[in-house]
Known about the structure:
It contains six helices and 18 strands. The protein is α+β, with helices and mostly antiparallel strands. It folds into two domains: 2-209, CATH 3.40.33.10; 225-331, Immunoglobulin-like (Sandwich). Strands 1-6-9-8-5 form a five-stranded mixed sheet, with helices on both faces. Strands 11, 13, 14, 17 and 18 form a five-stranded mixed sheet that branches. Strands 10-12-16-15 form a four-stranded antiparallel sheet, with no helix packed on it. β15 and β16 form a beta hairpin. α2 packs parallel to α5 and α3 (100-113) packs across α4 (129-136).
Amino acid sequence: MKIFTIFFLTIFLISCNSEKITGNEVPENEVPENEVPENEVPENEVPENEVSFLYDREPNISSCDEGALKDEEKQKALKTINEIRGLHRLKPVTYNYSDDVYTGKSALITVANATLNHHPKVNDQCWSPEGEFGSGKSNLYISSSGSYLSVVEKSENSIIQFLIDDNVDSLGHRRWLIDPFLSFVSYGRVDGKPLVDSKWNMVSGVSLKVINEEKAYIQDLLVDFVAYPFENYPSSYFKHNWYMSFSVLANTSNIWENKNVDYSNAIIEIYDEEGYMLNVHSISHDNTAYGLPNLLKWKVDNTLDNKKYLVKIKNVNVLNHKKNYEYWFKTY
């Protein structure tokens, strides 16, 4: 009974005291910020009263020490990333340990200041040049609790939240995660008490470095587009009534050639298993360089799990040629 009471109290505090922060305008070669409410996706959480099991050396926020995250946690994040990329028929990425100093110190800045910032200042708590660099090159994530008796999220949960990108209109986190040209990542995580005045007693910060000078070799990749969701798709990786998305892979040798895609006259049609056309709305497009520099996004009413849907996208101008695309998805 005592364990149940503690767990219930924790969830209550999280659901009542969580805040959501959404980045505003972000330069095109950077990633937007994201905070995801902790009371969602409970199956991706681990009930614990402390976080030492995550680390070879625990973080010490008061000493501005990011600690040493266990390699097992980094590999869990990497595995989830590659599982997601596999769903889109993209090549897996590798892990770049040399970037861990940037992501670890970036996550430390997030926790110490209890906020997300791609451009931390020198006078911020636990600022470092490595942390500033990492913050400008990474997807950022923060979760927080009003109690030390908190529910510690699994490391892979932040990856799933990057993919869904709830309440992030640019879908920047998703786009970097399923960028065909992404070659490697680094995952940093820090848990601890902020050094600034905050109602949060425990903060978890994650930095996933996704912006690299090196691009993956994909000239042998037999993919014409990246659609979300695509074919058989886990329901835990998708949120109904939020944005679906589509990007054309027009050139596999030069990422910037993929900016020459125009959706101005595109038509989106989605049909259910009975052939009924669903209501598609909130359509927009851009050529911002979050991963592939072209994106078409929309919302659909009344989609359900375990139902197959056919998507038709017509009149896309690709390298000055009109093209049509067709695919299906089914969340389960």
